[in-house]
TrEMBL record:
Residue span, TLC domain: 114-322
Cellular compartments annotated: Membrane
Ranges that cross the membrane: 29-57, 77-99, 120-143, 163-181, 193-210, 216-236, 248-270, 290-309
GO biological process: protein insertion into ER membrane; SRP-dependent cotranslational protein targeting to membrane, translocation
Lineage: Eukaryota, Metazoa, Chordata, Craniata, Vertebrata
The keyword Protein biosynthesis is annotated on this UniProt entry: no
Record carries keyword Ion transport: no
PROSITE patterns (UniProt xref): TLC (PS50922)
Designated name of the protein: Translocating chain-associated membrane protein
Listed GO CC annotations: endoplasmic reticulum membrane
Span list, region Disordered: 326-370
Classification via InterPro entries: TLC-dom, Translocation_assoc_membrane
Amino acid sequence: MGFRKKNKSPPVLSHEFVIQNHADMVSCVAMIILLGLMFEVTAKFAIMFITVQYNVTQTSEDKSEPVNFYHYGPKDIATVFFYMLIAIILHALIQEYILDKINRRLHLSKTKHSKFNESGQLAVFYLLSFTWGCSILTADFVTNPMFLWEGYPHNHMAFQVKFFYVCQMAYWLHALPELYFQKVRKEDIPRQLYYICLYIFHITGAYVLNLHRLGLLLLVPHYLVELLFHASRLFYFSNENKQKGFTLWALLFVFTRLLTLTLSVLTFGFGLSRTDKQGFSLAEGNFNVLTVRMTCLSAICLTQAWMMWKFINFQLKKWREQTQLQASKKKAVSPKSRASKKDSSRGGSANGVMKPEDKTSPRARKPKAS
């Protein structure tokens, strides 16, 4: 890992060298971009990486002061790339100074060790994202469902909304090289690739299609459920008796899937189809056509169905493991009970057996001679 002192240094530019020092290399690239702000020649180029681009100033009737809004464009790729570097550095810091120290105390196996690291990183991210998302959500998101599609296309975003989406895309893009940096096991790579690609696909789709209101409202409860799951798994690794969090997670997971489907059907099936602006226009950022709406709705429904299928398989696997444990405990108890019953029966028969001399009847005895 980065920032870690090693006794033996591997060959330069070897795989082990890159894995151990990847955070240092990435921090050097980030520092070069920051140093570009100090020179006039490179300042304009460096600002494109660091600050949020495409600022639009508007004046509203309610407020006398102008309000700054943002829209997206190709320069956002540079911004996402820079914050992806920041995410890699923060990932290494959390791993070395928090998770590795806890792992040394718990003495986990290799399988639990990798899962503990995964849950620890994701729990921190979900906690920050959930808190940030709740601060962005206004009363209109919760009390007025029509706010999700009114005034579409939503070309302009507030600074917090755009920066939130930039950080979300940067984090999930950084998770791809982390599969190599963290030496993730081959059997775990497909599972992690599935959900990483799904996050990138859905978040980028909501950002590009100007559906950031719906995307933000769906991400906040989803992140809460995922935070609860990974926090419960962390407690489970520390003490296997702590499993109550999984029950609450299961209930909220099903509720969140139903909420996601309900809001998606309302937005794509009823709301956007009845708005005034219908049509497809890249210049205006309008994608309100039947093909795009049905594609988005189908993608969300298929994702929710896949997540429910994985959830049901997980619950069935857990139920089978519990039944097997109960059956093994019964088998371990039954031989002891049978042995005790045999001992008691043997003791009872030994006390109730008559002596041979008692079995002789009076008729069988010979009379004494007179």
